[in-house]
Each structure stands twice: as structure tokens, then as C-alpha cells.
Amino acid sequence: MVRVDYIRVPGNTWIEDPDNRFTTVDMRGSMLEMVQRAFSLVSDDLPKGFVLPEGELQAGSNGLPARVLREALVNSMIHRTFRVNQPIQIIRYGNRIEISNPGFSLKPEEHLGIPGSVTRNPIIATIFHETNLAETKGSGIRTMRALMEKAQMLPPTFESSHDLNQFTIRLLLHHFLGEEDIKWLSKFKPFNLNEQQKCALIFIKEVGAIDNPTYQQLNGVEMIKVRTDLHDLKDKGILTQKGKGKATYYVPGEELMKFLPIQEKTEDKPTQLEDKPTQLPDELKEKINQAGQNYRSAKDTITIILELCDWTDLSLNQLAAILNKNEKYLKSTYITPLRKQGKLEYTIPEMPNHPKQAYRTVQLNRRKIYR
């Protein structure tokens, strides 16, 4: 027997209203039964529409492809670990679905979508394949990408975390290339961009930056293609490279900035977020000062971190400055474990390494974390 939690969240993030935050459906049963029940439950909640092409007599569906949802659910069953007693979690936000299972991917993230399968539970995988509930071994992610592209929707993104021992699939529900997107991309016609580069520009327009792993996930291409495409965008002045090595990422360059609305431009200048550590509420300042006068216990530090991130979204750099701690130590000792426990979450889950990544306290656990 397995457990699947389906959580409906109003809007695109956890909300603070304790009377109207989320609804949860707790499902328990066999794996085959859970896939069918979860699929039906989520499908009924999804926005549905139909398109009738000119000259056609039969309408086509317009929304998240059913095979993508089913494959994502099956993937969470096949590749989950049973070494920890945790449920598979499906969170339905207003703009996306996140399906998380315990157990990180046995394949490196850069190899996801490449033919070949590394299966944690071979017997379970065989059952799903023989019942035709799963795609051919090693082809599930490629199939999801192809179907989302055919539906003109943003390809699925994946996050595999060894620290959290968790794998997450994110499915965005809005159409990726709407009429406005196509019109906006037409401005870059003189640059002779390929389809993968255009996809990246839309992502940057929405999120503000992109890195190599995200580009690879969006387009399902090999890393050599990722580097070539991004360097080409950089050489054309469309993107600007930041960071070094694994921390490399790209932000809008001079050419891209010309076509971004003023509020979306991401120049390197101080922001309100960067000023917030000097604007701490008096109550929080007092707690930090009192804890600092004596030896600050781990419990005190955790409480302060959660209260800080409940007050406002804060980056690792800001938290380290406020608490006077080394960033690497703070992340490994407190931030990562709190994320693993579901008490902190990313503000930009689509790109964990986003240069403006920050943390917020998860409202689902708000009443428990201050005990």
C-alpha cells in the first residue's frame, strides 16, 4: 500500500490566510489504483478547452496532455524509494502542478531524457510497463517533452536533490507560445535564432535568468548544444554571462533589454530585497540580539530563520549577513535541512540556482515550526 497526498493551493504559492490556505486529499491503496485515482482527481481539476481549426469539423483538446500527467504520476511510483516512510505529494497551484516523490534520481540531471533507464524498483517498473501504464523504458521524460512541445506548452522541468532525497517534476499549465509570445519573438528575427534559443528567451522573460541545467531541461538537448547555444546568445549581446564554473548563469544582455518592459529588466543594482536586513522589525532585532549575547542554540537559530523567512523572502546571502554566519555553513547546517523538512521553500522553484533565489517559510507548517 502506498500513500499519495493531493494538495490544492489557491494561487501560485502558499497563502497566509489560515482559513483558506489549501485543501488536501489523502489517498491510500495499491500503486496501480493510486495512479488511476490521482490521475482522475487531478484531471478533473485542470482547466479544459477546445480548439476548432479553420476548415476542420473535429475540435482538438487544448490543455495539459493526459499522457504527460499519467507518465509523471507513473514516474513517481516507479522511481520512489521505500527506505523512507513518506508519501508521494502532488501540489496543484494555479499555474502549475508539482509531483514529488521520495528518492533522488539515480541518473544525473544532465542525463535525464537521454535514452537509457536506471531503475530503483525494476519489478515495479516491469508491472507498469506490461500493463501499458508507462512508456518504453528510458523514454518517459522524452515523451513528456515531445507531448508538451506539441501542445505548445512549456516543457516539464525536474529537480533531483540528494540533500532532500527527493525528485520533483513541474508541469506549467499555461500555453508557452501564445500570440503575444510569438509577436515578441518576431523582434529577434535578425538574430537568426533556433527554436531552443527562442524557448530560452521566453523563459528568461518570465523568470529573469537561466543556467545550463535549466536550458537543457527546457529543450532536451545535450550539454554541448546547451553551451553552444548560450555562448551564441552571449556573443550576439542578447545574454550576459554571470558567475563561474557550475555557478554560471545568464541574464538579459543589451539586445534583450531593449525588448523587455521596464519592470522586467534585471540590471545589477540594489533592490528593496537587498535593503531589507537593515529594516528588521524591532521584535526580530531583539530576538537576534538576545540570542547573540549568549551561545545561540541550533533550536534558537532555526526559530529565528523561520521567523525571518516568514517576515519576508530572504536570500542565503541576506540570512548569512543577518545571522553573522558563513553562507556555506548556514546552507548545509540549517537551510537545506529545513527545506528537506518542508519548512522552507524556494521563491523561484523553476530554477533552484537562480541568482535572485530566496527562501520563504512554508505556510503549511507554520503552526508547527514555532513549537
Quickly list its features:
single chain, 371 residues, alpha+beta, Heat Shock Protein 90, Arc Repressor Mutant, subunit A, 3 domains, 6-stranded mixed beta sheet, 3-stranded antiparallel beta sheet
Describe this structure in words.
The chain is of the alpha+beta class and 371 residues long. It has 15 helices and 13 strands. The chain has 3 domains: 2-172, Heat Shock Protein 90 (2-Layer Sandwich); 179-264, Arc Repressor Mutant, subunit A; 272-369, Arc Repressor Mutant, subunit A (Orthogonal Bundle). The longest helix is centred in the first third of the chain and has 15 residues, at 31-45. The radius of gyration is 22 Å and the shape is globular. It starts with a strand and ends with a helix.
